[in-house]
Design brief:
Order of helices and strands: EHEEEHEHEHEHEEHHH
Strand order of the largest sheet: 2-1-6-5-7
GO molecular function, one term: tRNA (guanine(37)-N1)-methyltransferase activity
Number of helices: 8
Distance between the termini: 43 Å
Function: Specifically methylates guanosine-37 in various tRNAs.
EC number: 2.1.1.228
Largest sheet: 5 strands, parallel
Main location: cytoplasm
Pfam families: tRNA_m1G_MT (PF01746)
Bound molecules: S-adenosylmethionine
């Protein structure tokens, strides 16, 4: 996958050299380029913002540097992703959809956001997704892009050492994942559930399913209510 990120803070993306994303880059599964939006300004102050039409607090990102920047990096076939608290909620399903793209371009807003004409004009030429991380407001889109990229890149074939990790995760089958444990079996007086040490794979699978159902019912009843009935078995319904 090819990824271009346009931002006024390229330094924010140093973590993309680390861990599994860094390894995906060195192995050639992921090609990331980070661009400074100010490269597409033409005044001595390298200005990217101005006061809002209609008045009000704060500054708005000007369309000209964005237009030139997107013209340069969004080559045919690219898909533009614009983080904004006014976007549709970012979910695992949205991550899966983005993971199928060959070329993603991310536009990181700052201040009061990007002049809307940038997004509207881009949408005449390429698919555009305006996406929100949640119902709160960040300083800028950089952290949002790091989050979105982590969720997307781990879905790319070959990135995770064991692709089975993706199968029973929270937000994949509709339920939250059951709690997980490792050695030692007793720690500070807390025991690992006996069943997980039993070696009985059938009982362990059932226990995990029950725990996932219980956890989801308690913590996220909205998710449980959305599970289609055909995805539940008789034991689930008895719970
Ligand atoms: N004035 C905007 C509004 O009320 O919708 C908020 C602008 S925010 C201070 C600046 C930038 O941070 C946004 O353009 C966006 O890139 C990013 N941002 C802030 N909150 C976000 C969220 N919940 N999800 C995704 N991006 C967010």
């Amino acid at each position: 996958m090819k990824v271009d990120i346009v931002t006024i803070f390229p330094e924010y993306f140093a973590p993309l050299d680390l861990s599994l994303i860094g390894r995906a880059r060195t192995s050639g599964l992921l090609d990331v380029a980070v661009h400074d939006l100010r490269n597409w300004t033409h005044d001595v102050h390298r200005t990217v913002d101005d006061t809002p039409y209609g008045g009000g607090a704060g500054m708005v990102m000007r369309p000209e540097p964005w237009g030139e920047g997107l013209d340069a990096v969004a080559t045919p076939g690219a898909r533009l992703v614009v983080p904004t608290p006014a976007g549709s909620p970012f979910t695992q399903a949205a991550a899966q959809e983005l993971a199928e793209a060959e070329h993603l371009v991310f536009a990181c807003g700052r201040y009061e956001g990007i002049d809307q004409r940038v997004i509207d004009e881009a949408a005449t030429r390429m698919p555009v997704t305006e996406v929100s991380l949640g119902d709160y407001v960040l300083f800028g889109g950089e952290v949002a892009v790091l989050v979105i990229l982590e969720a997307v890149v781990r879905l790319l074939p070959g990135v995770l050492g064991n692709a089975d990790s993706l199968l029973e995760e929270s937000h994949t089958g509709g339920l939250l994942e059951a709690p997980v444990y490792t050695k030692p079996s007793t720690w500070r007086g807390h025991e690992v559930p006996e069943i997980l040490r039993s070696g009985d794979h059938g009982r362990i699978a059932r226990w995990r399913r029950d725990q996932a159902l219980l956890r989801t019912a308690v913590r996220r009843p909205d998710l449980l209510a959305a599970v289609p009935p055909e995805k539940l078995d008789k034991r689930d319904v008895a719970l």
